Amino acid sequence: DSGVTQTPKHLITATGQRVTLRCSPRSGDLSVYWYQQSLDQGLQFLIQYYNGEERAKGNILERFSAQQFPDLHSELNLSSLELGDSALYFCASSVWDYTGELFFGEGSRLTVL
Amino acid sequence: AQKVTQAQTEISVVEKEDVTLDCVYETRDTTYYLFWYKQPPSGELVFLIRRNSFDEQNEISGRYSWNFQKSTSSFNFTITASQVVDSAVYFCALSDLTGGFKTIFGAGTRLFVKA
């Protein structure tokens, strides 16, 4: 158990819909990262927050947004969903920003029909 | 540019064989961090090792060893006497300041260890 909690574990929805994925980092970790892993694909970096502030951004679609709240949990919002958004979305946390190892949650598997 | 290349898509070995997973990275920074992660069939991602750019000392942990060579920008991972439980996807990753604090991952190498 990494200590990172992601909900929901599985989500099935239709095209055009909007979903919210939630992540609670390990106790004491200030950084939260979001990654997308499509079928047989590597991990694509989406966005990183450090202590409530956006720190780094990857190739995150404009339809996607995220935030980190004062209690350090984070949410990833995906809107106007398309079939291609079906993927495993991982949240990870670390104590520092870019220097430390990442601790990953179990992922949220999103299926868009 | 910040980039991690894992040229080996899949490797298949027989149990007890040694296997090396290659990782080549690109960065403009002099300070950076390299990582290896394991993703077993169950799907979770597990941290294996971190190495900073100033520490080229090779590391051994049980059957695992890592060879970091700045001259060739490589950070290779060797499993000695592989076991079926080593079957997984292994990711090499890099983080640096120029990359804007983000940790990027290579495409991964899928390792099959057959009994």
Give an account of the 3D structure.
The complex is a heterodimer of chains A (113) and B (115). In chain A, a hairpin with a 5-residue loop joins strand 4 (31-37) and strand 5 (43-50). In chain A, strands 2, 4, 5, 6, 9, 10 and 11 form a seven-stranded mixed beta sheet that branches. In chain A, strands 1-3-8-7 form a four-stranded antiparallel beta sheet, with no helix packed on it. Chain A has strands at 5-7, 10-13, 19-24, 31-37, 43-50, 53-57, 64-68, 74-78, 87-94, 103-104, 108-112. With 113 residues, chain A is mainly beta. The N and C termini of chain A lie far apart (31 Å). In chain A, 0% of the residues lie in helices and 51% in strands. In chain B, the strands form three sheets. In chain B, strands 2, 5, 6, 10, 11 and 12 form a six-stranded mixed beta sheet that branches. A four-stranded antiparallel beta sheet of chain B has the order 3-9-8-7, with no helix packed on it. Chain B has a two-stranded antiparallel ribbon with strand order 1-4. The termini of chain B are far apart. Chain B has strands at 3-5, 10-14, 19-21, 24-26, 32-39, 46-52, 59-61, 64-69, 74-79, 88-96, 103-105, 109-114. By secondary structure, chain B is an all-beta fold. Chain B has no helices and twelve strands. Chain B is globular, with a radius of gyration of 14 Å. The model of chain B has no long low-confidence stretch (mean pLDDT 92). The interface between A and B is medium-sized, with 26 and 24 residues.
